[in-house]
Specification:
Strand order of the largest sheet: 3-2-1-4-5-6-11
Number of strands: 13
Order of helices and strands: EHEHEHEHHEHEEHEEEHEEHEHH
Shape: globular
Helix content: 40-55%
Number of helices: 11
Structural class: alpha/beta
Bound molecules: nicotinamide-adenine-dinucleotide, uridine-diphosphate-N-acetylglucosamine
Distance between the termini: 33 Å
Length: about 350
Amino acid sequence: MSTVLVTGGNGYIGSHTVIELDKSGYDVVIADNLANSKMEVQNRLEKICGKRFRFYNVDCCDIDAMRKVFNENKIDSVIHFAGLKAVGESVRIPLDYYQNNIDSMITVARLMAEYNVRNLVFSSSATVYGMSEDVPFTEESPLGVCTNPYGWTKWMLEQILRDYAKANPDVRVCLLRYFNPVGAHESGLIGEDPRGIPNNLFPYISKVAGGTLECLTVFGDDYPTRDGTCIRDYIHVCDLAQGHVKAIDYLCRTDESVSVFNLGTGDGTTVKEAIAAFEKACGHEIKHVFGPRRAGDIAVSFAKTDKAEKILGFKAKYDINDMCSSCWKWQTMNPKGLED
Ligand code: NAD
Ligand code: UD1
């Protein structure tokens, strides 16, 4: 059985990916320092998968602690989710973001070289396309100027991994550029569980729908789009998780040293449309007001998905209604998120 080390596997996307890997017959080892997730996720995964996963509470920047993980397991592939991801926070504490995100990846890559682990999937983001208005984004679209340190860590790590792969011809690296992951597992047992007041649209809408927050502010309704609000390519987290399994399958059969794929649906949804879809899912109105634009937002972002479909055999199957209903189930089953 092929073993995948999932760093950050206790987090939002990582935990959903663990389920899909397990379903596809991969053996999973998780490394996470709980910087942005709670140990209860492991109990939930046990309920869903009927087994307890090997879990290491380690910081991926700590090479000695991580060496123990590589020593104790015969790892064939790594999916590196571990990282900090709050855009606003990255502007306030940039050094923490550069240090954590870059150091953790370099440390894991060093150990992969030391232990002859060939396959690496890296969590990148559509944020690397910058402020371009040339949509949809294809994998060949030029990389842009990022508007925040978080975005730059993804941009820099893509380059670092290209250089790493060039210097190590046996290595296979897959850069996955996610669009906007939302939604939750169908069981309602795991989902996005942000600390404090959410910054992103779906967690915020969920909390307004659930009554924990009063009112959503829509950031700008004067964009050049069909209803004046921004368009994004929301992708169900379970589809995204499936995309990672396809990427690992691909790395096991390809000769390409670095591959890049967009993971999105190829469809754009406006903020107003997202609110309407959520209202349908929860059965009541979501209170919202219109405010000014948020700095750094682009009007339209969506993926061209042909490459992932053709080469990985990946196509998202859930639509915006599925995303909203799964989010709502997760919210109603866990109104206060998970316990520490
Ligand atoms: P998350 O915060 O829920 O998960 C990340 C996990 O990594 C957390 O459990 C955290 O505790 C852990 N972690 C952070 N630093 C660590 C370290 N040094 N050592 C060990 N564990 C560490 O975030 P997510 O939404 O699941 O995102 C996963 C990855 O995907 C991140 O790299 C993120 O930047 C990237 N990404 C996320 C989105 C999104 O919208 N959620 C979009 C594009 C890219
Ligand atoms: C954000 C990050 C991006 C990251 C992505 C991952 C910023 C500037 N960008 O993208 O780097 O890769 O998450 O998912 O933070 N909105 C509101 N009201 C709110 C929250 C959001 O109207 O309270 C709007 C935003 O203006 C945007 C849309 O909803 O038009 C989606 O926002 P969000 O969920 O934060 O995602 P992105 O901005 O696309």
